[in-house]
Amino acid sequence: MNRGHNGQMKSLLPRPFATVLIALGLLLTPLVSRAVPSFARQLDMQCIACHTEFPLLNNFARQFKLSGYTLAAGNSDLPPIAVMVQPSFTHTQTDQAGGAAPGFKPNNNVALTQASIFYAGRLFGPYATTLFGKDGAALANKFGIFLQTTYDGIGKTWAWDNAEIRFANKGTVHDLPVSYGLYMNNNPTLQDPWNSSPAWGFPFSGSGLAPTPAAATLIDGGLAQQVGGAGAYAMVDNTYYFDVAGYRTLGAKFQKNLGVDPSGETQVTNLAPYWRAAWTQPMGNGTFEVGTFGLAANTYPGRDASAGKDRIVDVGLDAQVQASLDHHDFTALLSWIYEQDKWGASQVLGNTTNATDHLSDVKITADYLYDKTVGGAVKFFSVDGSRDALLFPDSASGSPRSDGVVLQVNYLPFNKGGGPLAWSRSNLKLSVQYTIYNHFDGARHNYDGLGHNASDNNTLYLEAWIAF
Questions:
Q1: How far is CA 202 from each of CA 25, 57, 196, 365, rounded to the nearest angstrom?
Q2: Is residue 6 assigned to a domain?
Q3: Which stretches does DSSP call E strand in 93-226?
Q4: Is the pLDDT of residue 351 over 50?
């Protein structure tokens, strides 16, 4: 569960360095998070080759990811660099006392949600032949990278973000085609090729100036940028996908050097195994996928090893259906995660009331795009589990229950034809997102028993997601 173990990304980089990064971001190429223009340049294709609406992947994009981000048309001499910028406006139904965040008003805030610089694509960009010769380039071009450094416009901090390096290749097993690879990354499920797993799930962006539920499973962002892991994957006959890995929390000094504050985070000790299996099939004009994933971790709460260890096990099921019919693109996503917690250390330290707890997290999303230009999405979400007054001290009755609906409308004016002639790989996504809570941290809509009201947290979020 998200129990405050997601350390705030406090600014630990020197100001001159941050200034240089910002300047580079403005001078290089603004962006798309996870749908970076460096991929489009490397493939010599527009964004719709890999996405319906970015960053939602289509089948070709999944093949590109399985290739370790290494497929290329060979027509670009530019390094695999891109930048992301997301200006936004946030309105919550009720003002937030003291301000939505330091330096912001209680409501109606304009902000730069985030900006990111990416090095993403072939590890050696278009320069492998120059560096290693023709024979050496054949091997070097099997290595790919996705490296993201992000400026948090709410916390005014720089830190490393999603990071992954891969080696990918193809072969055969009993005459069946196999795409396989090895990877290292800093966020469990980052490597997954479907949008139904946590790292790339909808909504793909959201406000940093609105309240969010306290409870979440550990695998759903609870370890992002705090861990390092290595694993191997294989897609057999374009049907069966397997992935195994192990993760462990990175050293406190290492995290600080990369802009992450490790204080208070859940520390994974030993090696936490991660697993993933999926079955996928073509279905008419689209594809269908169903699978499972999970993580089992022994942890020190708040990096405190004085009272022994906790045991957290997450098991997930997921499904994705995607279809394209003439001018219509449909995607449906389903994710269910069950977490079992044994508080061997946390109860001793007074962090939990119970010796064991559980949490269940359900997400159901339907996404539609017309003519690659206008569309929207609806997501139902629900998280619930054991009542624990110490674990959820700000919750009504110690309950972690939060549920509701996210509604979003999107307009992508450059998605189909590309951007201005000055930079044809540019893209723009304008979104209106509204989150409605029926329950929030145990409080019901119009609940007056403890003075809490779930609807106070309803949030209107306007965003421009720019890519060029």
A1: 26, 12, 8, 7
A2: no
A3: 109-122, 143-152, 157-173, 176-185
A4: yes
Residue 360's pLDDT is 98
Res. 51: pLDDT tops 70? yes
The domain of 351 spans 15-467
Residue 40 domain-assigned (yes or no)? yes
Tally of domains in the chain: 1
92 phi and psi angles, rounded to 5 deg = -105, 155
pTM of this prediction exceeds 0.85? yes
Q: Which amino acid is at 431?
A: S
pLDDT band at 445 (very low <50, low <70, confident <90, very high): low
Cis link prior to 193 (omega < 30° from 0)? no
> Taking phi first (over 0 means left), then psi (-120 to 50 degrees means alpha), and beta for anything else, what does residue 122 get?
beta
CA–CA separation, 325 and 338 (whole Å): 35
What CA–CA distances, in Å, run from 442 to 13, 383, 396, 403, 446?
38, 10, 5, 9, 12
Indicate which CATH number applies to the domain containing 41: 2.40.160.10
* Overall average pLDDT of the 207-227 stretch: 97
- What distance in Å separates the CA atoms of residue 317 and residue 360, rounded to the nearest whole number? 11
Q: For residue 65, what pLDDT band results from cuts at 50, 70 and 90?
A: very high
Joined together, the tokens standing for residue 180 give 């396989």
What pLDDT, on a 0 to 100 scale, did the predictor assign at position 26?
33
